Amino acid sequence: MTYYDLRNNDNNTPLLTDVWAVFCKPTAGIATNWGNEVRLTDESFDFLQAPNAGGFFLGDYEGLAAAGNDFLAFWSQPEDADSANIVFRRLTPVP
Prior knowledge:
The chain is 0% helix and 41% strand. The two termini are 16 Å apart. The strands form two sheets. Strands 1, 2, 3 and 4 form a four-stranded antiparallel beta sheet that branches. By secondary structure, the protein is mostly beta strands. It is built from no helices and seven strands. Strand 5 (63-67) and strand 6 (70-76) form a beta hairpin.
């Protein structure tokens, strides 16, 4: 699972945001074993630089797909003059 997170934000900065991934190993068919959280962003980005579509909006262009034993994650994040930049990462889960 991937998600946006504000844990690196504070009151003295813009709305610093990161993208994270976390993995789950089902135990007896129950998804209760979550762990091995990985930060996907190289550095925090300012969520307030996202396009404003009646509210700040990072877009519908986000996904996570399987590729053999790896995962392919992509998401939108503002970067420099591109407020709708798309980023891609290949992830290999840690056992």
